[in-house]
Automatic annotation (TrEMBL):
The keyword Oxidoreductase applies. This is Serine/threonine protein kinase. It comes from the Bacteria. It comes from Hyphococcus luteus. One of its GO terms (molecular function) is protein serine/threonine kinase activity. The lineage of its organism: Bacteria, Pseudomonadati, Pseudomonadota, Alphaproteobacteria, Parvularculales. Residues 9-202 form the Ketoreductase domain. CDD domains: hydroxyacyl-CoA-like_DH_SDR_c-like (cd05353). InterPro entries: KR_dom, NAD(P)-bd_dom_sf, Peroxisomal_Beta-Oxidation, Sc_DH/Rdtase_CS, SDR_fam. SMART domains: PKS_KR (SM00822). Keywords: Kinase, Oxidoreductase, Serine/threonine-protein kinase, Transferase. The keyword Protein transport does not apply.
Length: 302
């Protein structure tokens, strides 16, 4: 008997015809969930459309005795994905935004479509799906959402200005949605995975492929989507069996007084950037604390 179980729950996983999404779908199904397997069936660069990847994963789940239904719409039509869940199973509890592709190129060569196609599939796609699911999650006072980010978004990466932008924006969505969902038991988190898939085919070796199985990422997604989790607004990294969590770190900073010029910043840039006595603001109220102190000091000095 598993502690984490998804009996009675309906999970929608986008881009679940391949790679990480497929692994997530099989895990959720094994743990009792009814699964909507969404996949538009594109190439790794986002070309074409094909229903067979979604159908194949549904067949695999059914052959294991699980329950699943396929949806081959694009995440950009998010409402249709949620409709599939409602039509097939009458509810939706969990959304894993995972669909996407790459359009890597250095910034000076990036076309408008390289930019917009990537923003559309990763960021706008997650928006469209989350927006369609959100009222249903609110109504039932239960929901779990995982948005899929990337190290490229957290740290930046050459040739991925479009993708890095979309992926970090997804964590912005996570953080704000987590606040809005708090009262309704809707927990929202971001996972930045590292796993061998079509997307990494050209950059990793065969040995790395064996170590970076998508199945090593799915358990974190499963936990974050479970009733047992109370994590929300978090940013996690996972790959090859290693799991970690990130948070913001801010320098203690420097409060300057009087008429402040760029020269004053120059004189104090080391103090401003000194992380030796860093803080870790957890929310906007904590983040504003130094401004409040500086304002108080300014008022007292008048
Ligand atoms: P993958 O290419 O194996 O799977 C992505 C799936 O998304 C494909 O089956 C594709 O058909 C589907 N898809 C593409 N456009 C779609 C659309 N408009 N609507 C619905 N489905 C669509 O890729 P992988 O590696 O499994 O990636 C999954 C997610 O993880 C992506 O968001 C990716 O950016 C992210 N990621 C993956 C990393 C890795 O190491 N594999 C690293 C960091 C992030």
């Amino acid at each position: 008997m598993n502690f984490v179980s998804f009996e009675g729950k309906v999970v929608l996983i986008t881009g679940a015809g391949n790679g990480l999404g497929k692994s997530h779908a099989l895990m959720f199904a094994r743990l009792g969930a009814r699964v909507v397997v969404n996949d538009y069936g594109t190439t790794a660069k986002g070309e074409g459309a094909d229903k067979s990847p979604a159908d194949a994963v549904v067949d695999e789940i059914k052959s294991l005795g699980g329950e699943a239904v396929a949806n081959a719409d694009s995440v950009e039509d998010g409402a249709r994905l949620v409709e599939t869940a409602m039509d097939a199973f009458g509810r939706i509890d969990i959304v894993v935004n995972n669909a996407g592709f790459l359009r890597d190129t250095s910034f000076h060569k990036m076309s408008e479509s390289d930019w917009f196609d990537i923003i559309n599939v990763h960021l706008n796609g997650a928006f469209m799906v989350n927006r369609a699911a959100w009222p249903l999650l609110r109504e039932q006072n239960f929901g779990r959402i995982v948005n899929t980010a990337s190290a490229a978004g957290i740290y930046g990466n050459f040739g991925q200005v479009n993708y890095s932008s979309a992926k970090l924006a997804l964590h912005g969505m996570t953080q704000a949605l987590a606040i809005e969902g708090q009262k309704r038991n809707i927990l929202v988190n971001t996972v930045a995975p590292a796993a061998a898939s079509r997307l990494t085919d050209t950059v990793i070796s065969r040995e790395q492929t064996a170590a970076l199985r998508p199945e090593y990422v799915s358990p974190l997604v499963g936990y974050l989507c479970s009733e047992e989790s109370s994590q929300s607004g978090g940013l996690f990294e996972a790959g090859a069996g290693w799991f970690g969590k990130l948070r913001w770190e801010r320098s203690r900073g420097a409060a300057l007084k009087g008429e402040i010029t760029p020269d004053d910043i120059a004189k104090n840039i080391d103090a401003i950037s000194d992380f030796s006595d860093a803080t870790h603001p957890r929310n906007i109220a904590e983040a504003f604390a130094p401004f409040g102190e500086a304002m108080g000091a300014a008022v007292a000095a008048r």
